[in-house]
Amino acid sequence: MRGEAAFEAKKAKLRRRYYVQRNICAVSTVALQQIWPRQPLFRTASFQRSLAGVLLRFISSMFRRMVRNGVVSMKRSVFRSFMGLLGLVSGLVISPVVASDVVKNDSGGGRIVDAAGDPLTFEALLDMAASKTFVLIGEIHPAAAHHAFQAEVIEGLVRRNRRPAIVLEMLPPAAQPELDRWIAGDIAAQALGEALEWSERGWPHFEMYRPIFEAARQYELPMVAAAMERSEIMALGRDGAEAVEPMRRGQLMLDRPLEGPGFDVLRRTIVDSHCGMVEENAAGPMVLIQRARDGAMAQAMMESGPDGAVLIAGTGHVRRDHGVPRLLPSGRTFAIGQFETGAFPADDSAVFDAFHLTEPVDRGDPCEGIRERMKRSSNAAEGSGSK
């Protein structure tokens, strides 16, 4: 009798210990999900995998002890163990998790290299970027892999305790209220593209850019619409810098002259991007507009707050020789060029701090569309002149 009573007491003690420790695990899991939902460490995949492993080992050990001491039957313990672990691990899986925090060299099938063309790990890239106030990430606009990479860099900076503003080339100040509503959670994900009038503004499919917006909302990072309004761009192209007030010229940093190789590269880029349909001596207004757009983005970055900014823009805008970096405080920028190429772009090694290189994608002849638009514009002009 005494031995049986001692055995029952031991079983009761084990039961109480198991239930107490199981509840501690459950409460800890809820705390990690709810009490500190904005701590980047708790959302990283490696942290949650480690925590899940600890919980798995702990509960497995508890059940083995209970079975060994006859507290529950094996069949019942296996069922309870399975259900308990499923609940706890599911709680971790459904919590907000960064897509990946493992060291990697590529994104979307690409590779990362430094300015010398040497391989660079993703984590090393993030360390370099996080040390600078202003991070500029270029893109080829219709390249989905480039936008996924931009989102990954933003998430990586947050994991390094940075909270930069996300400055966008694509949207003018008129879209700022919608960006604020998005970050505040007042716009549904499926309605965001329409709310921003994304397709009407002529940008590639919004779904390619969605990861950037999702990352900003998840971490409550401000987003800034840094494009110029179309009416102002047209006025500059038609009437030159005198089309805007002196104060506005200063805001657009048009008082910062662009000369020498940087000017030559920008002018040649504009001519080439228009498939030779614009002569170099006629590219002046387009150069001025590009400078003004760069100035608007630089100004937005410098006004973004104490934790700096990340610029999302075409790769041409993030070049050091004629783009936004030349307008920002010296020594505080990190520029990443994204290219679709199998070879290191050695000619551009001096104008970027790092490169993300993805495989070329055949999208047909871009000049064909430009020629067609130019032809329609010419026909329309002739038609209106004959009336």
Short description:
This protein has 387 residues and is an alpha/beta fold. Helix content is 52%, strand content 8%. Helix 6 runs parallel beside helix 9 and helix 10 crosses helix 13.
Give a verbal description of the structure.
- The longest helix is centred in the N-terminal third of the chain and has 33 residues, at 2-34.
- Helix 3 packs antiparallel against helix 4 (74-93) and helix 10 (230-239) crosses helix 13.
- This protein is elongated.
- The chain has 14 helices and 7 strands.
- The chain is an alpha/beta fold.
- Helices cover 52% and strands 8% of the residues.
- Residues 363-372 have a biased composition (Basic and acidic residues).
- Keywords: Membrane, Transmembrane, Transmembrane helix.
- Residues 126-327 form the Haem-binding uptake Tiki superfamily ChaN domain.
- It holds the Pfam family Cofac_haem_bdg.
